[in-house]
Amino acid sequence: MIKCHLSKLMGEKKLKISDVAKDTGINRGTITRLYHETAVRVEFDVLEQLCVYLGCEIGELLELDVD
Amino acid sequence: MIKCHLSKLMGEKKLKISDVAKDTGINRGTITRLYHETAVRVEFDVLEQLCVYLGCEIGELLELDVD
DNA sequence: GTCATAATGATCTACAGAAGATCAAATATA
DNA sequence: TATATTTGATCTTCTGTAGATCATTATGAC
């Protein structure tokens, strides 16, 4: 399983979904899906923007989960 | 830019595109696009299978490139 | 060298899911 | 309470991968 730590990273910074959508320009629905881990694919653009915005590496946002 | 190190990782193990396709069950076209970095999005399933197959973390396969 | 096999690149259709928008419900704030 | 904001759910549109196929190139056997 791929684990997406967006909710954790956002929580640490006390960011709301609407904040991230507003600040990055990424569609709110897309962020919602990643936040709730219902997304099954991701655009590289989105991945990049989120990492830059959150100041993290891809490996901190997405992790291989042993399940 | 998102940099995909699939070609490097495969090169280190002397793996062919057809090998990876055969061994993982991932469509050859999909691997070809990641290999040549023409893909603009990726399924989490594919990401996971490639990492497991290559024995690497997501951060080793995908990297944030400062361009 | 020739021939056969494998690997690769290119291209097509079909399909799945994100993008984008909208609506209603829930939450926060004055 | 009333208003504004945030969020979840849902819909249509659109993009790009999945999967297949064909042509070309590379590899290896003879």
UniProtKB/TrEMBL annotation, chains A, B:
Provide the HTH cro/C1-type domain boundaries.
6-61
Q: Which domain of life is it from?
A: Bacteria
Q: Name one GO molecular function term.
A: DNA binding
Where are the membrane-spanning stretches? Answer: none
- Which InterPro entries has this protein been placed in? Cro/C1-type_HTH, Lambda_DNA-bd_dom_sf
Please give one Pfam family short name. HTH_26
Q: What residue stretch is flagged as signal peptide?
A: none
* The protein's name: Putative transcriptional regulator
Recorded source organism is Marinomonas communis
